[in-house]
Amino acid sequence: MTTPHINTIWYICTMENKLSKSERTRNFIIEVTADIFNKKGYAGTALSDLTLATGLSKGSIYGNFENKEEVALAVFDYNLEKINRIVQQHIQKADSFQDKLMVYAKVYDQFNIAGFPQGGCPILNTATEADDTHNLLKDKAAKAVIRWKKGLEHLILSGVEAGEFKKGTDHTRMALSIIALIEGGIMIAKVTNSQASLDKIMLTIRHLIEQIKA
Description:
Structural class: mainly alpha
Number of helices: 10
C-alpha cells in the first residue's frame, strides 16, 4: 500500500471544514494532478502518475472518481477556471474596452507565468488530443471556445455602444480571429520553443483591435 505524502495528509486535514472528507480529497486530487494532465494529456497520463503525485493509492483515487476520465474532465474545468480568474482580474482593472480585449493577448502571451496551468492552454491541449478520439473532452473544449467567443463578442459590442469601436464591426469575426491567433500562437511557440513568435502574433491582435477603433 502506498504511504500518503506528508503534504497530502496536511492538505486534506486543513482544507475548509465545511467540506466533507470526500470533497476535500477530490479537490486535492484535482489540484495536484491538474498540471500533469495538461502537460501529458489524457492518454499520456497513467494511473501511476496520479498515485505518485498525490501519494494516494489506486483505491483512494477510484474511491473518489469513477475512472481516469472523470478526473480528466474535472481537471479541465479546474485549469480553465484558473485562466478565467486571471483574465477577469485584469479585465476589471482595464479602463477601456480596447484594453479589456488586449487582456487576453497579454495573459496568453505569458502562459508560462505563475498561476497559469503548466503546459499551456488547456483548451488547445484538450481539443488537439480529443478531436475524434474522446467525445466528452472534445465537448468540454468546444463549450469553452463558445463561452470564450461570447465573452469577446460582449466586450466588442460594449465597445461599439460606448463609442470606442466602429459601428458595424463584425464582432463574431473579430472574436474568432482573436481566439484563433491566440491558440495558434501558443501552438507555434510551443513546437518551435520561440517566445518571439508568440509576441509577434499577439502584436497582430493589437493591430486588429486598433483597426476597429472609432
